[in-house]
Amino acid sequence: MAFSERVALRTRQGLAALWLVIILSLFHDPFTPALTVPDSPLPLFATRTGACVTVQHHCVSEGVHALGTTLYWGVLLPLLIAVIFLFGHEFWRRVCPLSFFSQFARSLGMVRRRRPWQSTGSVSAARPTKVRPDSFLARHHLQLQFGLFYLALCARILFVNSSRLALAVFLLSFIAGAVLVGFLYDGKTWCQYFCPVAPAEEFFTGPRGLFASQAHQPRDPSLRISQSMCRTLASDIAPEKSACVACKANCIDIDAEKTYWASLMEPRRQQLTYGYAGLVIGYFFYYYLYSGNWHYYLSGIWTYEPHALSRAFAPGLYLGGVALGLPKLLAVPLVLGGVALLVYKGGQTVEVLLCRWLQRRGTPLEPEVLRHRCFTLTTFLIFNLFFVFAGYNVRQHLPQPLPTYLPVALGVLSAFWLQRTWHRSAATYTQEVKSQKGSRRPGAAFDLVVERTAAGFSVATDKGSADASSPVGNLDELMHTLRTSIETHLSPRRPEP
Ligand code: SF4
To answer: Which of 255, 314, 407, 468 is 20 to 30 A removed from 332 (C-alpha atoms)?
Structure first.
């Protein structure tokens, strides 16, 4: 998706403003309840008189309600997943309103600064803090992000789904977290190390989205900024410039596919893929385990049923017509965590069994190819499972045949993605990178590194993060930027804004 940083910034600002308006409407909404009365001017949202939904053998009546939670869970969230899957991580990262809030302190020049320790004993100027590559956070950020996502999903079922106030506090806490991390650390540290949506972005993008660009195959080789790489706003005549401060090695924003292949065989990637799939399955099936029927989820009454807090201590499981004594407060994390663990172990086992079976057939596959195909199939299946359920509460009221055609259309698009991704491999990617490098003029790669290093270094000095009069003080910064530039920019080509 090629569009300028000016357009991206305006879109980010617009989405951030819209998000704040939505949050405000969750505190006070005098308009939408009128749309849900039985004789509503919008039949899409009209409540059916006398209709009720069975939950654990009790009847919960449909009633007049505000539409904030219904539209948030039934329209906005499914739209987000569809956008990430179709246009790739790179598109969403450039317009994400949470990313906008995370850059708030940086845009005001208020990022926390610290004096780096110098082995020579010299004193250098304070500079913006970055997550150290060997720190605990850098090594375990995926587990942290996955854990936050798991907690957020549990909180959704327990408190947030049906309470506008809880949803407003839930969203504001994310914004506060993004702003705080943006103040504490430089670069896109929130997106890279903390954001709980990042596992979903990695899961649904795979090596690349259906309509996403490829960082190593630029349409215009003169462009030096790839995918969602950090960049400065260009004037009308000057080209956009990189604003990368090297906050992460192997940055997914610079080359998503390179990051995918580099992490493919790591246990953390396996945990993310199968664990995320398990959480999605566990999330949807919990509604059945809780209420005893599918109508509870499909009706969408869970987006506005009252007394969410008191229900946290009511029976959380209803099996075979019997409400079990386990409170919902415990049942939700147990079911979601249990299913995630089961699917993770199941995914590992399937990979091993498939490997043995292929060897016995005499058609073995490289471990990387086998894992990539297992991941690809998992993403395809989970995407389609997601859209069987997600948004159904709103979709079912649309005029025919839209309720049927929408998930079918997404299914067809996901089939294209599957076909395009299935035969992709690290070897193909490396080959393409080599041929791309071969087509460049001699010395161009070195120029790129020098240019990128200079860009990163000038960003640091512009902000006063390094003392230009102290060569020793600048050396660490320069070497770190140079190392990261070589690592992230030399092998693959950059690309396509
Ligand atoms: S490494 Fe550079 S491009 Fe990637 S998120 Fe950090 S600052 Fe942005």
So the answer is: 407
pLDDT at 29 over 60: yes
Residue 315, H or E segment = strand 315-319
Query: What is the atom index within ligand 1 of the atom nearest the CA of 253?
Result: 4
Residue nearest to atom 8 of ligand 1 (CA): 230
Q: Is the CB of 253 under 6 A from ligand 1?
A: yes
96-155 tens-digit pLDDT = 999 999 999 988 888 888 877 666 666 677 888 999 999 999 999 999 999 999 999 999
CA distance 152 to 131: 24
DSSP calls for 209-249: -TT---TTS-SSTT----TT--EEPP-SSSPPEE-----ST
* Distance of alpha carbon 161 from alpha carbon 170, whole angstroms: 10
- Whether the CB-CB separation of 295 and 54 falls below 8 Å is answered with yes
Residue-wise pLDDT tens digits, 146-186: 999 999 999 999 999 999 999 999 999 999 999 999 999 99
CB 332 near ligand 1, within 6 Å? no
| pLDDT beyond 60 at 20 | yes
Pocket test for ligand 1, best of 103, 189, 190, 254 (most atoms within 8 A of CB): 254
Nearest protein CA to atom 5 of ligand 1, as residue: 188
| pLDDT of residue 471 exceeding 60 | no
The DSSP 8-state label assigned to residue 255 in this structure reads -
| pLDDT tens sequence across 402-422 | 888 999 999 999 999 999 999
Residue 431 and residue 428: Cα distance in Å, rounded?
A: 5
Please give the number of the atom of ligand 1 that sits closest to the Cα of 246. 1
Residue spans of the domains in the chain: they are 5-490
Q: Are 457 and 478 in contact (CB under 8 A)?
A: yes
CB 226 within 8 A of CB 496: yes
Q: Is the CB of 66 under 6 A from ligand 1?
A: no
| Averaged pLDDT score across all residues of the chain | 85
* Listed residue (290, 300, 351) closest to 326, CA to CA: 290
Peptide bond into 401 cis (omega under 30): yes
Query: Environment class of residue 454 by beta-carbon count within 10 Å: exposed (0-12), middle (13-18) or buried (19+)?
Result: middle
Pick from 102, 188, 488 the residue to mutate for probing ligand 1's pocket: most ligand atoms within 8 Å of its CB.
188
Reference 262, options 213, 195, 215; nearest CA is 215
